[in-house]
Design goal:
Blueprint: E1 2-6, H1 17-25, E2 28-31, E3 49-52, H2 58-70, E4 75-79, H3 90-99, E5 103-106, H4 111-119, E6 132-136, H5 149-152, E7 158-162, H6 168-177, E8 185-190, E9 198-203, H7 207-214, E10 220-224
Parallel strand pairs: 1-4, 1-5, 2-3, 2-4, 6-7
Antiparallel strand pairs: 7-10, 8-9, 8-10
The structure holds S-adenosyl-L-homocysteine.
Length: 251
């Protein structure tokens, strides 16, 4: 049994309890070293075999998993954030299916949640946006035709861009070709929840210049939308005049 575990966005105490328990039990850990905080490896047993997959091919990763499985080891594949987003774990699961090796997945805190926490921001504000688009700018990896950034940006809702910090001139053009104004609030969150986390508030129009000035071109998320602007109208949830399942409105 191979356990795919979400490591969380960076801070070592933002892994789930289940994920940490598996790391404590593991005989073999293969971690995505480009983005997983090595501090998480402190959960591992002293004699745990640990591999960094950053410079490995998928074939090499699968071979390690198979050898571990054949030897009856408890194997953890540690992926950054939540594995379900840009995690490339599906292709590994397809290979494991072919080999008849079973697996399960432990979710993690994604960096988009870590970035919102860093900003004390709420993506879904009444009157402002009730949707969050998680996407990326097309780069070396293609994006399906219907998901080109300008098209996604036509909604003007809250948006988080992964894997796009090095492409911000193009991002700005696409966002403005969609529904955002150049003065729409934006933020660049570098290494959310890591000790060297940095948050830069800016606008759609100043995204590229801000990243250049601060020297950020990777390990960052781009947040866009009016949810990043000032005070908001209150929601109905805690409104004394609003009745719902758990509370009756006062007169
Ligand atoms: N599965 C991960 C995303 C992996 S893709 C998750 O759920 O967060 C890698 C991209 O995620 C990076 O290029 C960057 O855009 C973003 N990223 C990952 N960790 C980050 C962090 N702590 N702070 C900011 N961006 C991060």
């Amino acid at each position: 049994m191979i356990h795919f575990v979400g490591a969380g966005p960076g801070a070592a105490d933002l892994i789930t309890v289940r994920g940490a328990d598996l790391l404590k039990k593991a005989d073999l850990v293969i971690y995505a070293g480009s983005l997983v905080n090595p501090a998480l490896l402190h959960y591992c047993k002293e004699d745990c075999e640990i591999h960094n997959s950053a410079s490995m091919t998928m074939e090499e990763v699968i071979a390690l998993m198979k050898a571990g499985e054949d030897a009856g080891k408890t194997c953890v594949r540690l992926h950054t954030g939540d594995p379900s987003l840009y995690g490339a774990h599906r292709e590994q699961m397809d290979e494991l299916d072919k080999l008849g090796i079973s697996y399960d997945v432990v979710p993690g805190v994604s960096s988009f949640s870590g970035a919102a926490a860093a900003l004390c921001a709420e993506y879904t504000l009444p009157q402002i946006s009730q949707s969050l688009i998680i996407t990326r700018m097309e780069g070396r990896t293609a994006v399906p035709e219907g998901e080109k950034l300008a098209r996604m940006a036509s909604h003007g809702c809250s948006m988080v861009l992964f894997l796009s910090a090095g492409l911000l001139e193009a991002v700005r053009e696409e966002l403005i070709a969609g529904a955002y104004e150049p003065d729409t609030p934006a933020a660049i969150v570098y290494k959310a929840t890591w000790p060297d986390e940095a948050v830069y508030r800016c606008t759609v129009g100043t995204l590229a210049q801000t990243a250049k000035d601060k020297g950020v071109n990777k390990t960052a998320l781009i947040l866009v939308g009016d949810f990043l602007s000032g005070p908001v109208e209150r929601s109905k949830l805690y409104d004394p005049a609003f009745t719902h399942e758990f509370r009756t409105a006062s007169e």
